[in-house]
Amino acid sequence: MSRSTISLYQLSKLYPNEVSARAYMESRRPASYLQGIDRMSDGLAALNTVMDTVLEYRPRGAKGKSPSPQPIKRKPRLLDLFCCAGGAGVGYSRAGFEVVGVDINPQPNYPLQFIQGDVLKLDPKFIALFDAIHASPPRLIDPIRALLVQSGRPYVIENVEGAPLRDPVVLCGTMFPGLRVLRHRLFEANFPIETPKHGKHPKVHTFDKRKSHFGKTNDMRDFVQVTGGGNCTIAAAKDAMGIDWMTKNELNESIPPAYTQLIGKQLLSHLAWS
């Protein structure tokens, strides 16, 4: 996986069934405009301009409606909204999706393709380029749900316990071999999600001498609580969550990629049947 700026060349690779945006734009736009677009230096507004061009293109001589798209062999595309540092996005990528993340804040550690922008201002034509959507909104869940429903795409909303999600499932680190973190997260979706058995919570490693199990655990072997309290080293937190690219603050807020890898595989099956 590698993070990169989205350019017109990469658009042609990401969306191989679309016609050449470059060829069409050269026939209609001045060179100065093209130079600015090439590196997407103007961020989301520039990307939406390119999307409009790609979507509105009609082959020369064609009349009426554009021809129906032909099926192609490619990875399904997933839009990762409120992506932060990429815990969810990497899980979907491992499941088999081509992932593009969007966040209003810079995310220098996001390891996949990234766009900085306001989720609520995304062009519906841009959203329509994706096969599925994941969102981890810090607030404003109802407007985000409305946006996802309007898209007509399969979607997932992830949030903390107590968030007003509809009929969510719960995932925890005890459900995944190899994880060593107690982190409950809720997932709402418009398709079924099957969850593994929720295991018993073990005692977690502690630096608190008042705890009865102090000195009896090892943070590189036993379960840990990855929070701002600092009950384990950053190396132990990364190992416990299956994440090796984030800072400690990013780890505190993230979900393990294993969660969305599980969901992503079920989402792929849903897409195949829908």
Describe the model.
- Helix content is 32%, strand content 12%.
- By secondary structure, the chain is of the alpha/beta class.
- It folds into 2 domains: 49 residues, no CATH class; 144 residues, Vaccinia Virus protein VP39 (Rossmann fold), CATH 3.40.50.
- The chain has a 7-stranded mixed sheet, sandwiched between helices.
- Strand 1, helix 5 and strand 2 form a beta-alpha-beta unit.
- The protein is globular.
- It starts with 7 loop residues before the first helix and ends with a helix.
- About 15% of the residues have low confidence.
CATH class of the largest domain reads Alpha Beta
The H-level CATH homologous superfamily of the largest domain, spelled out, is Vaccinia Virus protein VP39
Assign the structural class, choosing from mainly alpha, mainly beta, alpha/beta, alpha+beta, or little secondary structure.
Answer: alpha/beta
Number of helices: 10
Estimate the mean pLDDT confidence. 79
What is the structure about, briefly put?
By secondary structure, this protein is α/β, with parallel strands linked by helices. The chain has ten helices and seven strands.
Chart the SSEs and their pairings.
Elements: H1 8-14, H2 21-26, H3 31-38, H4 44-56, E1 77-81, H5 87-95, E2 98-103, E3 113-116, H6 124-127, E4 132-135, H7 141-151, E5 155-159, E6 169-171, E7 185-189, H8 234-241, H9 248-253, H10 257-273
Parallel strand pairs: 1-2, 1-4, 2-3, 4-5
Antiparallel strand pairs: 5-7, 6-7
Helix pairs in contact: 5-10
Key words describing this protein structure:
about 270 residues, 7-stranded mixed sheet, about 30% helix, Rossmann fold, 10 helices, 2 domains, alpha/beta
